[in-house]
Specification:
Blueprint lengths: L2 H21 L7 H17 L23 E3 L9 E2 L2 H14 L7 E7 L2 E8 L2 E7 L5 E3 L2 H4 L17 E9 L2 H13 L8 H9 L4 H6 L3 E8 L8 H10 L9 E3 L2 H14 L7 E8 L2 H7 L9 E5 L4 E13 L4 E13 L2 E7 L3 H7 L6 E5 L7 E7 L28 E2 L7 H12 L11 H9 L14 H5 L6 H13 L5 H7 L7 H11 L2 H6 L28 H12 L1 H12 L24 E5 L7 H10 L3 E2 L9 E4 L5 H10 L3 E3 H7 L3 H4 L38
Parallel strand pairs: 2-11, 18-19, 18-20, 20-21
Antiparallel strand pairs: 1-6, 3-9, 3-10, 4-5, 4-7, 7-8, 10-11, 12-13, 12-15, 13-14, 13-17, 15-16
Helix pairs in contact: 1-2, 2-22, 12-13, 16-17
The protein binds 2-(butylsulfanyl)adenosine.
Length: 723
Amino acid sequence: MTDQEQILSLRSELHRHNYNYYVKNAPTISDREFDEKMHLLMQLEERHPELYDANSPSQRVGSDLNHEFTQVRHRYPMLSLANTYNRDDVQAFYDRVSQGLGGEAFEVCCELKFDGLSISLIYEHGRLVRAVTRGDGEQGDDVTANVKTIRSIPLILNGSGWPDSFEIRGEVLMPWQSFEDLNRQRELAEEPLFANPRNAASGTLKSKNSAVVAQRRLDAYFYYLLGTELPTDKHYDNLQRVASWGFKVSDAMRTVGTLEEVMDYIDYWDHERSHLPVATDGIVLKVNSVEQQQRLGYTAKTPRWAIAYKFQAERALTRLNEVTYQVGRTGAITPVANMEPVLLSGTIVKRASLHNEDYIRALDLHVGDMVYVEKAGEIIPQVVGKQMEGSGAAVTFPKTCPECGTPLVRYEGEAAHYCPNDSACPPQIKGRIEHFISRDAMNIDSLGPETVADYYGRGLIHNVADLYELTVADITGGNTSRERSAQRVVDGIAASRRVPFERVLYALGIRFVGKVTAKQIARHFGSLDALLAALPPGSPPGKIGTEAPRSGELEGVAGVGEVIAQSVRAYFAQDANMEIVNRLRGYGLQMEIGVKSEELGVRSEALAGQGIVISGTFARHSREEYKEIIEACGGKNVSSISSKTSFILAGDNMGPSKQEKARQLGIPLVSEAEFLDMIGERNETNENENENQNENENENQNQNKNENENQTNAAPQQLTLFD
Ligand code: IVH
């Protein structure tokens, strides 16, 4: 067999196995065999760039290259459906159709209404050529590269009989399981959570990095075939055909001939949908004959031949006892409904989000109201309405901070209120110190929220710089039995002086500057001085270097938009902040990147003779530092994986193609924690894990980007995590 023949045969084999696994849920080979074949294909493709195929199964891993979306006009506008929550409307629809067809018999195709985002795919000569989001219905974003990573979408069609050119529409979804896994990871990384699988799917599909999409395990169901040469006159039969070409089509579709059967279908799925792996929010009824559909036609916005019946979200009725207000580290005030405990979708709920003042006002809430609480696929319960007015006082949003009494402010364009007293409002101060010591920031694990509250209460610390002046005597207050633990605290704080600059920058808690952004800024400027020098004139001088100010340079840093840049400028423009930063510098914290490994205190022969690839992102040290550590321990940092690689130091977000390659060559993956154990660093400092829970205030809510994946439209709703 020539290489070319082998490539072609492997491609078709792998397409088939993808289909068996992701569409049929019935794999016929082991994962290992699949991986081996994929590896072989990738090797052969690397050797034969002239045989590149944009639809090869090897393209499913996506690419890290950022790509902007181009706007594409839909061939046929993407209309929506008339919606109802009401069975009488279903009956009215049925009667209208019957009348519209002059009393002629008709069949109705009943389908699930999938709750994701709609997608339009164009196939030509059996190959996927374009995928476009709904957009405004007239034109949408070209997301082809992202869609190719969705394993259940055929890149090349199976079977035969497909029109030479056709469009097919369906719904891209994030299955519940993937959604929960993703949010768990994001919670650990202190990233804003997605409110529901639909938001997660939408944010993911609009990611500018298709490698991120590949990792997120999206799925897609198809429900509408368009074109001038459809296989049959029946919608249902066309979709069965579509299934034989390799698309995922729901098994739940049924054709019925009476209104009674339609109602039975609704009743059945209203209950059964809770067992489905993906979110559904209703059912869709379509006249089955395409010819009858054409006769019925369209209104300005929707087809007359279809309607969506939406299920009521699961909701519970309970009594509102009190509204309390949480003050986060940035001063944002979150109103919380405290209610009589009630069972909702399997869990007891006693607190629910009220979002902001406008929301409370729209509900006209009073203490004692009987309120409806919903989960509706959301993870945080929400108060969505009320049944009865309580006898208590109207709920009024406070004018002053519930913690420090300062008048609240509301910034233009924001729904939230803030306490502006950031220098003296206790939860803000404690919140900032807790953030500073947290694992991804300075990682001072001998301290936790309770110790912070204790020291703050005793007047020992008022800001993060005060930590570095704490003495054993301060902490013990003369109680000698506390000396050992006090010493540990002081040592832990001292050790944090070695934490790299990018994490110091993150630890400062500048609004909107998360871990990833801090890293980008640190890498771009290299030092605090260079960053300060780039701030516009009028910013107070820190220790500014000799370079001329480069106003606007911040916006040039990858992932830093106007909102973030403005926030960074505002932070350093405040004297109080500059004073803290300068004190931290004075205590010896890292204010530039690239500390030497000797300073990190690591030197041994622990990695002698080993060739190590570093991949992903890390919590304890930067990649640069790990390179130095590897060298300092006698190892060699190599850039690409080969059979000679000893192991891969694997952080978070390791690229899927690297993972695939490592698996194929049997190269072990070593986690950051395991690696620290190998070099003997972990045990020195990692006792007494810091249980500092993130307050998850969603600092990013006004960010026009989302860290980590450059989403253009993730817009996660503001979430607050309750117990
Ligand atoms: S048919 C012209 N079928 O619901 C009819 N839509 O408001 C085109 N949806 O934008 C749509 N499941 O995103 C159809 N089985 C299904 C559906 C479905 C979910 C979504 C779709 C559409 C919206 C309609």
